Amino acid sequence: MVRRWLTTKTFGLLGVTFCVFAGCNRTGEPLDSNARLESMLESVALKADSAEVEEPEIAGAADAIPSKVMDADEEAAIDPEVVATGLDLSSQVDASDTKATASPATRAILRSAVSCELVREETLANNIANATTIGFKRREVILADVAATEATPPGEVDRTGDTSAVGTLAGGGCRVVGMRIDFSPGLQQSSKQPLDLAIEGEGFFQISLPNGEVGYTRDGRFTLDANGMIALSGNRQACLLEPTIALPDNSTKVVVDSEGGVFVGLPSEEKVFAIGRLQLARFANPTQLAPIGDNLFRSTDDSGIPTLSNPQTYGAGAIRQGRLERSNVDVEVELKRLSACRRRISQLRKLLAEDG
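Request: output the structure for the sequence above.
Response:
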C-alpha cells in the first residue's frame, strides 16, 4: 500500500492544496477552478497549527492602493503563461523522515496559485483606486484549470492505497484566462451641469474616436469642443458624441429629455428647438467588451455587435440630465476581498518557504 506522503505539518497543508488544485474527487470528476481556490484556503485555515500566519493589515483604502495608482484605462497585467505540469505521484516519503519533500510538480501547482492570486490582488487594488472615477466599472479575474492528466488508470491503486474504479485525474494548477467587467449600475450623483448625462438602465453612449472607430462608455461627462460639437470632457475633446450634435453659437440653454432629445434655447425666443437626438448602444454580452482607455470600450466577437435605439425604446435606458453615474466599486467589499487575497498569498508563500 502506498504510504501517505505528506506527514509533517507543512505537508499536511500541502496535501490539502494538492487535493484542491491538482486532484479530482473519487468519481474522477474535476473540481471547478474557482471552487478549488476557495476550498483550498478554507482547508488551510482549518488545518493550520498554532503558528500564526502573518496577515497584512488594511486600515483603509489608502493602505490598499498601490504606490503606482492605475488609471481607469489600465488593466491588471495578465501573464497567461503559467507552469502546466502533471503531478509526480511516484514520489513517497518515508515515515522516519523528519521533513517531507514535495515534488517539483506540486511546487509548480503552488506557484501557479500564487501567480493567480497576485493578478487578483492587483485587480482589486485597481478597483479601489478607481472607486471615485465617474463611470468606472469594477473588474474580476477569471481563472481556469491547467489541463488535467490521468493520475491513476481505472482499476489501479491510487495514492491513498484504494482501488479506483473510474480512475483519478491530476491537474497542473490554475491560470488567469481573462478579465470580466462588472457593468452593474453605479449610484447617480447630481452635478447640475447641462451636458452631464447619466443612463438609467441599459445602454452605452456612442463615441466617435479620432481613429475613425466607435467606442462605448457609461461616462456621461460631456462638453463642447471648439466647433460647438458635443464631445467627452477632459483631455478627450476629439472624442465626439455619436450621432454628432452641434449647438448654435447663440444658444442660451440646452435641454436633454429622458428620451434623448436635445433642445436649445435661442435669444428672444421663449420656446426651445430640437437639434438632435441621442442613441444608445446595447450588447448581448457587455461583460466581454474590451477596455481601450479613458473609460471607453470597443466591441468584440464575444460581446456581439451593438443594437442601436433611442433611449427608453427596445430595452434601452433613460437619459438623466445634470446627473452622473458613479463607479460601481464598493470600497468596503473590495477591501475585504483584498485582505482575504493577501492572506491567501501569505499562506501559499509560507507553504513554499517551509518546503524550501
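The radius of gyration is 27 Å.
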